């Protein structure tokens, strides 16, 4: 018996495993993801297995994760700028007192990450 065969009716390749031919199937490759896409992927795997599996099998997972990653990165940049402006954090403060500037920007970053996690990642 041949090790590999091709079925023209369904377009699948099969591999001989013992006495049976099993289809040679592979999952689609996931795109390169940033931190937000990886966080969403981990959340789906751990807490929404049926949604994760459905999206993976329908080949929509990669597109979904890319969209979440792109949207979250844009939202992070926008919210950081808006909240820094609202708090009065300027380049003058950065030049005058770097430690205070870093503390305030880190506090804003933590707030923005919480907002993004609540609205996009864990939704």
Q: Care to describe what's here?
A:
The protein is mainly α and 123 residues long. The chain is 64% helix and 11% strand. Helix 1 packs across helix 2 (49-57), helix 1 crosses helix 3 and helix 3 runs antiparallel to helix 5. The longest helix has 27 residues, at 61-87.
Write the layout of secondary structure elements.
Blueprint: E1 4-7, E2 12-17, E3 20-23, H1 35-47, H2 49-57, H3 61-87, H4 91-96, H5 98-121
Radius of gyration based on Cα positions: 23 Å
What proportion strand?
Answer: 5-15%
Helix-strand sequence:
EEEHHHHH
**Fraction of helical residues:** 55-70%
Total beta strand runs: 3
Number of domains: 2
Structural class: mainly alpha
- Amino-to-carboxy terminus distance: 51 Å
Taking pLDDT < 50 over at least 5 consecutive residues as the criterion, the unreliable ranges are none
Largest sheet report: 3 strands, antiparallel
User: Helical stretch count?
Assistant: 5
Q: What's the arrangement of strands in the largest beta sheet?
A: 1-2-3
- Average pLDDT figure: 93
Q: What is the approximate shape? A: rod-shaped
List keywords for this structure.
mainly alpha, three-stranded antiparallel beta sheet, 123 residues, 11% strand, 64% helix, single chain, 3 strands, 2 domains
């Amino acid at each position: 018996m041949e090790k590999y065969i091709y079925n023209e009716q369904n377009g699948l390749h099969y591999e001989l495993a013992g006495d049976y031919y099993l289809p040679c199937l592979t999952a689609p490759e996931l795109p390169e993801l940033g931190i937000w896409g990886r966080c969403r992927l981990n959340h789906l795997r751990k807490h929404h297995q049926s949604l994760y599996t459905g999206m993976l099998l329908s080949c929509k997972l990669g597109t979904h994760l890319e969209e979440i990653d792109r949207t979250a990165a844009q939202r992070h940049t926008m919210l950081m700028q808006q909240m820094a402006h609202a708090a009065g954090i300027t380049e003058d403060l950065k030049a005058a007192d770097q430690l205070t500037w870093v503390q305030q920007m880190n506090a804003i970053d933590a707030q923005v990450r919480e907002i993004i996690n609540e609205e996009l990642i864990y939704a």
